[in-house]
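Bench log, entry 3. Co-assembly request; chain sequences pasted below exactly as received.
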Amino acid sequence: MTSPHPIASIIGVLIVALSLSAFLIWVERRLLALWQDRYGPNRVGPFGLLQVVADMIKIFTKEDWIPPFADKPVFVIAPAIIMVTVLMSFAIIPVAPGIVVSDLNIGLLFVLGMSSLGVYSIVLAGWASGNKYSLLGGLRAAAQMISYEVFMGLSLMGVVLLAGTFNLTGIVKAQQNLWFVIPQFLGFVLFLIAGVAEARRLPFDLPEAEAELVAGFHSEYSGMKFGMFFVGEYLGITLISSMIAVLFLGGWMGPWLPPVVWFLVKVFAFLCFFILLRASLPRLRFDQLMSLGWKVMFPLALANLLVTGAVVVAMK
Amino acid sequence: MTNFAHIAFYLAGAVAVLATVLAITRLVAVHALLYLIVSLLAVAVDFYIMGAPLLAALEVIIYAGAIVVLFVFVVMMLNLGTQARETERLWLTGRAWIGPAILSALLLAELIYLILRPPLLGSLSGVTSPKQIAIALYGPYVLGVELASMLLLGALVGACHLGRSSLSETEVQR
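Structure output for the full assembly:
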């Protein structure tokens, strides 16, 4: 099943997703500044709103340099992979009733598949740069994202059990009476943490830990290739926020306001939460990250799945 | 299936075959793995067109998304340089192709025979829902599922044994 106006929804989703994540660059800098008692970018345009435009002009006119020791084809393709995989995932997000590009019956699995393909972007960028720091960043990214992907999927299975479908529109409709954040609170917390790790945001930004790895996997990137990693990260957190809104907070549902507005409000609240995390938490050490993933989060996700399954069977 | 689906199916199939050939003949290990990923994705597209969306998604998540990432991880750790490329070039001689070529030719002959015989391998119509697959897996095939899980448990115990760190540090120093 697809939407009645596929081309219109594709263009609409693309424009909204891209402009929202570009806008986020400004929001993040302003909010961080607010929480750190300074002004942030406030010179270009009203409230510094045109800062993004200025940044874009700068980044497009920069020299696009490929290091001679890099593996050229892989180096070029790596930043494109993250943009493609994240933007593809937006295709199955139901923004409002009927506003969805493709209402796949395996929608949730599609997102998980795309996010697992997104790992390649970071890993290959680290490898192709031909630089020790980049390689270390790529290795860290591979280990981190594979580990956190495991229970990211598992934490969502509770929602799937309750809704009885992988289809995201179906999941939203199943929350008519009760948002899944209440019966699946553990799953919600686990997914939130896994989402931060998948998007490589602080406190889990070890692949690009600038204090130890220069800039990690994107040390050698410049110009718009770097820009794609940069925007890809914001697109990533936008995607995770939309997923949280759809899976746990009833998607477009809410009183008084139109559905699209409710959806955007929920997404934006989580985006601000992600920025607050960056403002307030220090970065983990890599072994702490790994043991947190496998020794705490993973058993909790399994237990959550087991209990949810038992409850669903008992209720029948 | 509509005409468009037929074209898409054979296009994805051609991509899969071509990418697999390239995966074998590339000299740089990471490039070969990249072609392997493309091949797996093309196979996933074929599964989807044949009406098995769950299988297609699992192919992407598990094979392309997890297993090949581990391959890439290991290749990165080994940090192969130009020397490995030269070795690969030496290994990929004409004679190395004889054995695999005979085996693949046999398979190809079998495949052509099966395709030419009038009744095809099952019908390709209809979409298999995740629910149907789940009912089949935990109904008639539950023994196979349990056996596979035992195998994986064995692998897990083995990995735990190899990866334990408590005694190795003192042992190694002696």
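The two ends of chain A are 29 Å apart (CA to CA). Chain A has a mean pLDDT of 83.
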